[in-house]
Amino acid sequence: MAQLIINADVTKGKIDRNIYGHFAEHLGRCVYEGIWVGEDSPIPNIEGMRTDVIEALRKLKVPVLRWPGGCFADAYLWKDGIGPKESRKRMVNIHWGGLVENNHFGTHEFLRFCELIGAEPYISGNVGSGTVREMAEWVEYMTFDGESPMANWRRENGRDEPWKLKYFGVGNESWGCGGDMRPEYYSDLYRHYAAYVRNFGGSKIFKIACGAGSYEYGWTDTVMSMAGKYMDGLSLHHYTLPTSVWADKGSSTEFDERLWFKTLQQTIEMDTIIEKHSTIMSKYDPEKRVALIVDEWGTWYNVEPGTNPGFLYQQNTLRDALVAGINLNIFHKHNDRVKMANIAQIVNVLQSVILTEGGRMLLTPTYHVMEMYNVHQDALLVDSTLISPAYESEGDKLDQISASVSVNENNVMHISLCNLHHADGAEVRIDIRGRQAESVQATALTSEEMNAHNTFDEPDAVAPSAFTDFRLERNELIVKLPAKSVVVLAVR
Ligand code: AHR
């Protein structure tokens, strides 16, 4: 039995809606086919962007979308992606499959897509192979409201009003695909480039520096010490690999109980990783002015058999749903430092919420969890203590339950629970203190099989359903979680 004690009258700050952010890179079939099909496509579209995907993402309440990479960002020349499509330059996507990129999806299309899905844009600038001037001009092109060479050019290209751009990243994985830099060198470059990311017309750009990959704590230390005061956010990337072996990460759908366990064990590392980076950041920024922006996270498996290895296309099962639920609970817990997180990636790449095949589209188990959880967006984190039984595998142990609690502006309390165990159900006794529970409604996502997933022929094999296996006894809520499940309860 697990116990969750909730102090409903003690709140611990807002869960930033941007924790539910996404990431779209020019990689495989994410942008091309997943989002952009072109105005002349037989696939229904709005100005070239597929209608089914737009509708699904609006429903999901995507708060922020990062683009154009990833590794691609440090090879991207934004000027090649504006103006009449027929005359846009073509380039080779050196990072992802060496395919020819026709630049049909550029700045105007991305910012329009954000408007259509109701998300804030987060642009990732090119430090690896672009100049300071190119970056400065990009910001001017998008946000300058008066008379200027870039603003005039934007108008010639059909957009009169500047866009409101809040989030701008200065380089991506500059320690790796973004330039193989040392943190000292990057810190100076960050300061130089960021100085030219100017605020125009009352805008205030939130500047995000390139942060570490998973366990690279030295990077955080150096960049914070040398450039911390010039940034608003510092990124962090952490991917979940079941085997932790890069050359053979494991299949997205073929796995046993041990690999289920190892995947969840690896994903929970996110908690410690955030804790440690945040502690280092606090050496230089004890007030927590600089946010930790987890702008790439999610599962990374071997690609689906027969697909292009450079496309990073993978299926998405109930295991991914658990990974999503656990990570979101972790981000909530660190809401004092983590102000944005972007799951990688939005369509057809890595842990996607949407998969497409030609004109067909499906919603993955990850989509369903992110939709069930979106009730936490901008809600206040509520103080809670969890006492969980252990989930054991070959001598390794994890907490069987993951939980998070928030209260929204309508005073509805939401409790998100994950039962990590592949085979055992769990009773969770929830002691609600400091408020009277009148009624409870709940939704669950679960299935018989660990690798249950949606296919284009069976798109609703894994879907949320109303959940009723709980009872309210005075102010104690007793919930019987099925094995391998994610449950969200609304307490009024
Ligand atoms: O999301 C795929 C890739 O993973 C990104 O391009 C890069 O930033 C990271 O290594």
UniProtKB/TrEMBL annotation:
Database matches in InterPro entries: Alpha-L-AF_C (IPR010720), ASD1_cat (IPR055235), GH (IPR017853), Glyco_hydro_b (IPR013780)
Signal peptide: none
SMART domains with a match to the protein in the record: Alpha-L-AF_C
Keyword Repeat part of the UniProt annotation: no
GO molecular function, one term: alpha-L-arabinofuranosidase activity
A Pfam cross-reference name: Alpha-L-AF_C
Domain Alpha-L-arabinofuranosidase C-terminal residue range list: 295-485
EC number: 3.2.1.55
Family per record: Belongs to the glycosyl hydrolase 51 family.
Protein name: non-reducing end alpha-L-arabinofuranosidase
